[in-house]
């Protein structure tokens, strides 16, 4: 930013083609309201479920839920734009039907607040790298690796970090008898590259496995079947430092499920009171520090950048078992990631600002 008084021009990307489209919209609404407009010139760009991009107004219905109705981007209500994959081209090109193509002006940084495939999985990150634009969050490889649960678990295990037993099923494959014996019951069936608990089922009888696989494969042809881990569900936020001292861990939080689903499903996360949250988690001091150290180790094992939320289980014996690493976690003011950092002394607005400053510091290109 130097000594210039010009506001930083920030494109806030949200929506997208994944099943987590609406959660992205709600997250973006929170970030938009938190950005200091005296410092940032914000351009909200929504991506609809068919992949069309449009500049939308700050008060767009796509940025806030109405009751229990989740928002959806309607690209026809905004100005159509594209992002050319070339650093020599205009950063964002406007498609004005009444005039020739024109650019939207300079862009300093992009906040790709997209969850799931076609956003959090390295695809948008690759486009932004091609365009030469700095952006918030992990790079192409870490985003892709964290999104694919099979490769995420392989990399965590290769780094000596604990993961639970699982099996990978590709299209047309069935769970073998040896894997059934190894995993036991209950199991959880998940899309390999999804989030927000969409497409996840708990299976307590093998007779229900085919139905669960069908549900998961509606989101992703590759699925995971995971052994249930008995323990407390713990989350921890990781955030890069501006001074170069390395990633830091927040205080952990605990999720206690009260819904009939028996796990932290989509409804419990976003639509009901199906879970109770303790921020910070009520863990002994030594265990808290092990959780925080494990979260940072997972962040580094996947070569993440900027931010991540690390989900894990703590067994009755105090063993830590890693579950997932989310490189662009939910970001509403009530989402767990901002709440953990607020309890750690960094409020929502300061957290958003720090992430943007990290992106500006790191710039575009290899990190």
UniProtKB/TrEMBL annotation:
PROSITE patterns: ATP_GRASP (PS50975), DALA_DALA_LIGASE_1 (PS00843), DALA_DALA_LIGASE_2 (PS00844)
Pathway as given in its UniProt record: Cell wall biogenesis; peptidoglycan biosynthesis
SUPFAM superfamilies cross-referenced by the UniProt entry: Glutathione synthetase ATP-binding domain-like (SSF56059), PreATP-grasp domain (SSF52440)
Known cofactor(s): Mn(2+); Mg(2+)
Keywords per UniProt: ATP-binding, Cell shape, Cell wall biogenesis/degradation, Cytoplasm, Ligase, Magnesium, Manganese, Metal-binding, Nucleotide-binding, Peptidoglycan synthesis
Active-site residues annotated for this sequence: 20, 196, 335
Residues annotated as binding Mg(2+) 1: 311, 324
Pfam families the record matches: Dala_Dala_lig_C (PF07478), Dala_Dala_lig_N (PF01820)
Domain ATP-grasp: 153-357
Binding site residues for ATP: 149, 188-190, 196-197, 226-233, 323-324
Tagged with keyword Ligase: yes
Localization: Cytoplasm
Catalytic activity, EC: 6.3.2.4
Top EC class for this record: ligase
Catalyses which reaction(s): 2 D-alanine + ATP = D-alanyl-D-alanine + ADP + phosphate + H(+)
Gene Ontology biological process terms in this record: cell wall organization; peptidoglycan biosynthetic process; regulation of cell shape
Domain of life: Bacteria
InterPro entries reported for this sequence: ATP-grasp (IPR011761), ATP_grasp_subdomain_1 (IPR013815), D-Ala_lig_Van_CS (IPR000291), D_ala_D_ala (IPR005905), Dala_Dala_lig_C (IPR011095), Dala_Dala_lig_N (IPR011127), PreATP-grasp_dom_sf (IPR016185)
Primary role: Cell wall formation.
NCBIfam families linked: D_ala_D_alaTIGR, PRK01372.1, PRK01966.1-4
Stated family: Belongs to the D-alanine--D-alanine ligase family.
Protein name as catalogued: D-alanine--D-alanine ligase
Taxonomic classification: Bacteria, Bacillati, Actinomycetota, Actinomycetes, Frankiales
